[in-house]
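G., the chain you wanted modeled:
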Amino acid sequence: MLDKINYDKGASALIDPVCGMQIAADSEHRHVHDGTEFLFCSDSCRGKFTASPEKYLHPEEPASTAEDDTAIYTCPMHPEIEQQGPGTCPKCGMALEPKGVPLIATKVEYTCPMHPEIVQDEPGNCPKCGMALEPRSVEAEEDDAELRDMSRRFWFSAILAIPVLISAMAAEFWPARMAEIIDPSLRQWIEMVLATPVILWGGWIFYVRAVQSVINRSLNMFTLIGLGVGMDLQYGCCAVSGHFPAGRV
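Predicted structure as tokens:
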């Protein structure tokens, strides 16, 4: 005797595995697969199921695009550097990338054939018509968390740095006029207050990697950036606080 599968485990009626519609137990649209008799609401749904039963019995799970702590990561500039999980290269400080990942990754999402605007990451039924959502493969979005973080730091820094640039250049080309508008000492303190968050927060990632390059004994461009900006900050603080003779700032 053939078994019948109820696809809606909490309901008394049978559910069509293709469209998700409720069907009667005496439906004439039937198909036997692996010793089990499946019932359908129409011959069209039965035909779809017959053509690819695994598509409806075992829909693919969406591919995960999150960082995998168990995957092997490597440096694009130094391929000999490999480690388990994400991180930064001990030689150049660049972010490590997953090894062996294809350039174009795909994932599976589910959509309604009648209402294509309904899209979700897991299988289920359409909230509008009740039909079972069908899987489709789409290009997976690349994890751009590092880019978003650097973009936030850039725009925050730009907002504060542009007034400092304008003020400094105006004082350089029109010193007498700027001295009439604002006291030079006060102007320098304002510039330092605006520039400090840019240097400390905006460029924090560069200092972290500069320190890592010293610890790993592999000096790189982050070492130069950290050293140069750090010395500039100390020089500016000393100049504004009056540690240099007049006319030397």
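The longest strand covers residues 106-111.

Shout if anything looks off.
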